[in-house]
Give the backbone structure.
Amino acid sequence: MALYSEKVMDHFRNPRNVGVIEDADGIGEVGNAKCGDIMKIYLKIENDVIEDVKFETFGCGSAIASSSMATELIKGKHVSDALQLTNKAVTEALDGLPAHKIHCSVLAEEAIKSAVKDYYDKNGIEYEKEKFAACEEGHCCH
Ligand code: FES
């Protein structure tokens, strides 16, 4: 069996939602200290719904495919639904990732959480701190 699924290859070669949103309502940037990869997510939010999402990923093919798939999965969704997105769901939607590449999908989950947190912080919206434990633990870049 090929190491990467067709879906991974497709999202790596033709990533969806690449770019920047200049007037983003929430921006999340996370990095993995071990591999040095960085992922940035931009959210345009209206009435708590993600109207648009873009990403910039400086990283491996799996990180690019994970960002692409993750942005597709949260587009048009309520921010609270985006917060539920797990790296497992991203991996499953990609028809799997090799074990040593699972951390790439974790980066996508954390980048989205970080962007939603930024949106909440900017708008003075209350949230449960434990939902963002990973950010607090310093996995995020900032
Ligand atoms: Fe680190 Fe893929 S190798 S994000």
About this structure: Residues 32, 35, 37, 59-60, 62-63, 101, 103-104, 107 surround FE2/S2 (inorganic) cluster (CB under 6 Å). The domain at 6-136 is CATH 3.90.1010.10 (Sufe protein. Chain: A).
